Amino acid sequence: MRVIDAPSPNFNDRTLPITMLVLHYTGMESAEAAVTRLCDPAAEVSCHYLVHEDGRVLRLVADEHRAWHAGTSHWRDIEDVNSASIGIEIVNPGHEWGYRAFPEAQIDAVVRLVAHLKDKYEITRGNVVGHSDIAPARKRDPGELFPWNRLSRLRLALPRPTKNLADPFWSEAGFCLALERFGYDVSDRMAAIMAFQRRFRPELIDGEIDAECRMILLALLLPKPQGDD
């Protein structure tokens, strides 16, 4: 795929190997405003790649460098997510500026980019995550309209489990313990539950732990979750 270089000065050295991909939406009024901010030294934010709505891909920071896209975040045993990840910004105004569905050309480009990076760095499906997964108390992107099923069908991300589901009847504390084991920061329980729902049950994001949520999480903790992949 063709990648256009648009260098940002906002990066430093990695201290960890690349083991994660983090997907974001830009959450700004326009793509131009997002690129300007990501390349502004005063903003102190950046990403490795930005995918326009028409499918064009910009590279702002080289893979070997640590871009500043994750902020304060956590996933599994990783606290410095910036050092361990590649950040992909997907142009979309986000929840504050008129959140909308992602165009087909854009998602096609995201799929190609994720496939390339996942293969190049041998990243597991469980480490292809959204910003809301790694920072549930602060972020909602890429949001409930992002088609994770497109990635999971190609084995580029974990599926939403739909087969052989069983309810473990966990209490709220038990569910949150399992959610933490899966990878989420559960210090804000409601935020973590809603982030999980946004990713794996996006049609109902209410922060309530029901049987469907328990069954999905249990299946994800098993070695080979079966669903829309």
Automatic annotation (TrEMBL):
Catalyses: Hydrolyzes the link between N-acetylmuramoyl residues and L-amino acid residues in certain cell-wall glycopeptides
Q: Which Gene3D superfamilies match?
A: Peptidoglycan recognition protein-like, PGBD-like superfamily/PGBD
Q: Which residues form the N-acetylmuramoyl-L-alanine amidase domain?
A: 6-143
EC annotation from Swiss-Prot or TrEMBL: 3.5.1.28
Class of the enzyme per the UniProt entry, highest EC level = hydrolase
Q: Which InterPro entries match?
A: Amidase/PGRP_sf, Amidase_domain, NAMLAA_amidase_2, PGBD-like_sf, PGBDSf
CDD domains from the UniProt entry: PGRP
Which UniProt keywords are listed? Answer: Cell wall biogenesis/degradation, Hydrolase
What single Pfam family name could you report for this chain, choosing any that match? Amidase_2
The family annotation for this protein states: Belongs to the N-acetylmuramoyl-L-alanine amidase 2 family.
Can you name this protein? Answer: N-acetylmuramoyl-L-alanine amidase
Q: What high-level taxonomic lineage is stated for the organism?
A: Bacteria, Pseudomonadati, Pseudomonadota, Alphaproteobacteria, Sphingomonadales
